[in-house]
Design brief:
alpha/beta, Nucleotidyltransferase, domain 5, 2 domains, eight-stranded mixed sheet, six-stranded mixed sheet, 14 helices, disordered C terminus, binds adenosine monophosphate
């Protein structure tokens, strides 16, 4: 079975085609600058040269058409016909309170995702454009939606509620939703496989550390708490986002700087804060690590930003250790978690009291799956490259299989009633 996974942004369209029997990537690519001059398609079929071309048309349907053309191109493609695509899986950022798992797409599901646009204005509307584009270009092909929020939907109320008047939760759905759920679920599942133990009996803390960062407490295969909240602004220090901050700073800054609430939240706290804001240098951890380690003139604020990032994460790890009543494994993933052994070491320094002891040598790896804890560490420690697309493909394939099983048994039932 071949499953096409799609991740649609307002101006970008990422895709990856999987062969599910082997879980191999057959091809992947990206359409960039949708809606602007110079829309380009970058494509790579496994084992072939990369291909790049200008894209005709300037909307998501044109992007999807270009993707199908290149996937079936004799030179650059991997398919003889689009009919080989058995299903499409869409990544959706916000699934609200209704979806605690992935679902097949129907009009009701689309309308619900559209209604959630108020909570995810940058993400859900382009996701809908992607779904509509597929409906136009691949009519009749089943589609599934896999939500970033779904994995966290089983958090208990004491973890997801904010201590504000309860009516505001009922009226507006103000609560912790959590994000990066697909990544947390993928790496927790993989850690259990590497440990050779059932996920259902493990307590795992997963640290997704990338441009956006979040940490989750995964107990018995369920996320019981996570650091991102109502929006992806809460929690850890990030590349350009402040993470946790006293909300009283918002009106204070509005008064002092003559800003609107929108400017404080979206301008300052989302785009100019985090390690960029503290260091004044860069949001990229490679730049910060280089600057902080400069043998002649170490960059003081770059170092402070890195220490703040590590300290905030350490506090969450301590909190989640207590929330789960212990810990079997600590997992690092995403751009920083997979690549920066310096940051992994910085985070683990001071966690020895919890039985978390990193092995200096084993930790010196980038971008590979590795066990990096010391032999005497009570908690096993892993670096695991995330693979959200594969999890989306798996869940899509499972839903399609479930649906055809359900259809087959419905057909059997219908036949029985005919007699
Ligand atoms: P992501 O959002 O998962 O793609 O992560 C992107 C971030 O990972 C970048 O902003 C970098 O800060 C960080 N990153 C990538 N490679 C490295 C590396 N070798 N060392 C430190 N940080 C890295």
């Amino acid at each position: 079975m071949r499953v096409l996974v799609i991740n649609c942004g307002s101006s970008s369209f990422k895709y990856r085609l999987f062969e599910m029997e082997t879980e191999a990537t057959l091809a992947k690519g990206l359409v960039e600058r949708i809606g602007a001059p110079g829309t380009t398609l970058k494509h790579q079929a496994t084992g072939k040269d990369p291909y790049q071309a200008e894209c005709k048309g300037s909307d998501h349907t044109a992007a999807m058409t270009a993707v199908l053309e290149v996937l079936t191109d004799p030179q650059w493609g991997v398919l003889k016909s689009v009919e080989e695509i058995a299903a499409v899986g869409h990544r959706i950022v916000h699934g609200g309170e209704r979806f605690s798992r992935s679902v097949l797409v129907d009009e009701d599901v689309i309308q619900y995702i559209a209604a959630l646009s108020e909570l995810a204005p940058l993400h859900n509307p382009p996701h809908i454009m992607g779904i509509r584009a597929c409906q136009r270009v691949l009519p009749g092909v089943p589609m599934a939606v896999v939500f970033d929020t779904a994995f966290h939907q089983e958090m208990p109320p004491e973890a997801f509620m904010y201590a504000i008047p309860y009516e505001l939760y009922e009226k507006y759905g103000i609560r912790r939703y959590g994000f990066h759920g697909t990544s947390h679920k993928y790496v927790a599942t993989r850690a259990a496989e590497l440990m050779g133990r059932p996920l259902a009996e493990l307590k795992i803390i997963t640290c997704h550390l990338g441009n956006g960062s979040s940490v989750a407490a995964v107990k018995g295969g369920r996320s019981i708490d996570t650091s991102m909240g109502f929006t992806p602004l809460e929690g850890l220090v990030m590349g350009t986002r402040s993470g946790d901050i006293d909300p009283a700073v918002v009106p204070f800054l509005m008064n002092k700087e003559g800003l609107t609430a929108e400017q404080v939240i979206n301008g300052l706290f989302n785009k100019q804060s985090g390690v960029l804001g503290v260091s004044g240098l860069s949001h990229d951890f490679r730049d910060l690590e280089d600057a902080a380690a400069d043998p002649v003139k170490p960059h003081r604020r770059a170092r402070l930003a890195l220490e703040m990032f590590a300290y905030r994460l350490r506090k969450y790890i301590g909190a989640y250790f207590v929330a789960m009543g212990g810990l079997d494994a600590l997992v690092f993933t995403a751009g920083i978690g997979e690549n920066s052994y310096e940051m992994r070491a910085r985070v683990c320094r001071g966690l020895e009291c919890l039985g978390i002891i990193l092995d200096g040598e084993r930790n010196r790896v980038r971008g590979v799956e590795a066990e990096i804890g010391a032999p005497e560490s009570r908690v096993r420690i892993f670096a695991i490259p995330t693979n959200e697309e594969l999890l989306i493909a798996r869940e899509t394939a499972d839903l399609i299989a479930g649906d055809s099983r359900a259809a087959a048994s419905a057909a059997v039932r219908a036949k029985k009633t005919e007699f």
